[in-house]
Amino acid sequence: MLIDSYFNCIIEFVTQCSMKRQNVRTLSLVVCTFTYLLIGAAVFDSLESEFEAKRYDFLQTLKKNFIKKYNVSSEDFRMMEIVIIENKPHKAGPQWKFAGAFYFATVVLAMIGYGHSTPVTIGGKAFCMAYAMVGIPLGLVMFQSIGERLNKFASVIIRRAKRYLQCAHTEATEMNLMLATGMLSSIIITTGAAVFSRYEGWSYFDSFYYCFVTLTTIGFGDYVALQNDQALTNKPGYVALSLVFILFGLAVVAASINLLVLRFMTMQAEDAKRDEQDAQNLAAANQPVTFDTEHSTSYNMQGKLLSNSNYTNEFDETASICSCTCLGGTRCMNHEPFADPDFRPTDIIASNLSLKRASV
């Protein structure tokens, strides 16, 4: 009994809330997102936690053996760690000369954020924040605009291909565009993975992982291109290729995101229009019609009597209301007969009533 009462209360509460379709979709998205986060956390825990513990134990063993072998104090070992960590970015050459600074600015504007090099001075940090506040919206608008142009170009190609193949429907649908942008994104990632595997010495899988993390703007920073063999100064062609990969790849990804955003906005507009139409239909169904008589009588749009009247009978639920002036014994072409053929409201005619629509 308690469980039944609990569920009845829940059902009653949900019914009284009368949630719209948009609210239901938003709530469903929130629930699905948090459920997806919980599933991801569980999977990463099972895949990475044990290996992390083993790696930590291994590194601690190396540290102890190193200190014991070379008789290094803990302070000196800590200093060596700092020197090695701080020296790592300099393997690629000067990070803040024009080539390195341009690469950093691109990473900031694209919101990738590898973390391979960061400003150290107060002026550099302040300018980075101001630069990002202007550059990130500018970059989003640019990538979105390029994505729209790519979608337009893809739609033209798809229509021509369908006409060449003599398809019944030659218009480019949203699904066609999604498939086209998805294929182009796959080509860019697989090609970029081969290039970076060649220049960086990574395995193809690690290169593919780097391309995916970069173009989705995740930017973990565990794999960063142009960080070996003074590449920023000695390989200008490779630097240009990396920048083109980032910018063009993000534009293609923006094209896919543009399609998803447009689809979501279309669904929102359709739901809003449907809700508005339902509200209009409900208002029209419940709008009353009254007669100006001594005894005010109201009918709704289906002809149902809404207030007390002297003329109610067992047929008043189905009696029709005619907007003409022929109520009574006489009939016209527009006047529909009452459900009760013996019913003749002659006394209503004698009262000189007029028909009007009441305000809701």
TrEMBL record:
The keyword ATP-binding does not apply. GO terms for biological process: stabilization of membrane potential. The keyword Oxidoreductase does not apply. The chain crosses the membrane at residues 26-44, 96-114, 126-146, 177-196, 208-226, 238-264. Keywords: Ion channel, Ion transport, Membrane, Potassium, Potassium channel, Potassium transport, Transmembrane, Transmembrane helix, Transport. InterPro entries: 2pore_dom_K_chnl, 2pore_dom_K_chnl_TASK, K_chnl_dom. GO terms for cellular component: plasma membrane. One of its GO terms (molecular function) is outward rectifier potassium channel activity. Residues 94-150, 186-261 form the Potassium channel domain. SUPFAM superfamilies: Voltage-gated potassium channels. It comes from the Eukaryota. It is found in: Membrane. It is a multi-pass membrane protein. Pfam families: Ion_trans_2. Its main location: membrane. Belongs to the two pore domain potassium channel (TC 1.A.1.8) family. This is Potassium channel domain-containing protein. It comes from Glossina pallidipes.
